[in-house]
Amino acid sequence: xxxxxxxxxxxxxxxxxxxxxxxxxxxxxxxxxxxxxxxxxxxxxxxxxxxxxxxxxxxxxxxxxxxxxxxxxxxxxxxxxxxxxxxxxxxxxxxxxxxxxxxxxxxxxxxxxxxxxxxxxxxxxxxxxxxxxxxxxxxxxxxxxxxxxxxxxxxxxxxxxxxxxxxxxxxxxxxxxxxxxxxxxxxxxxxxxxxxxxxxxxxxxxxxxxxxxxxxxxxxxxxxxxxxxxxxxxxxxxxxxxxxxxxxxxxxxxxxxxxxxxxxxxxxxxxxxxxxxxxxxx
Length: 282
What we know:
two-stranded antiparallel ribbon, 2 domains, Muramoyl-pentapeptide Carboxypeptidase, domain 1, Chitosanase, subunit A, domain 1, Peptidoglycan-binding protein, Peptidoglycan-bd_3, Peptidoglycan-bd-like, mainly alpha, PGBDSf, 4% strand
């Protein structure tokens, strides 16, 4: 069994099953190592299919950082697996895109934030929003992860500071999404998509716009496709993909219709922002 099987089949396993399934343990160790929850371990020996003390400790710390109670309940299902699959490492080093017209990261991120923050607003906790409590676009779960990773006690996202907001957007969205290697129009759209859908979700939208298999992982194939299509046209394709996804989501879950107008207004505004002088790309 693999983590993706838990997601695709909405399956559930208990701790005894997990710790006796070598394939599942290897999958678990691979993801925990990739996202930095097994530091100081030799990856060649850490991924061995044995559920030892290091793996258990890494699993416990991941669940705490992700605000999941699976380590306590001993039950692991689709929500746990999806969260582990979607979580990305703080930095994914890649070869810089050749020939791209780039701005300094601070300038590009400031431009991207100019759009994103005008739509995120302040503290909200809508009962029908699966993301839960959110402030300036940062969910409570994301804030918990940030505070734990910085060895700080968790607290309500309503207390987040402007510095923490900037740090989170830079270290947990801008950098791991690979926005710095993109031309400005694409970086703006890709970053805002990462904030909306998570880094893995943003990479899937990018991959779909590039016409390649969408697995949410920025690997060599995605980088090669990006090299050939690192432009504003790809950015516009992502915006259209977002609009299509919003409508499909509401069709499959009518309770989300209350958000549809706001979502579509944001997507349409993003398309307009790409063409405006305010984005510095006209």
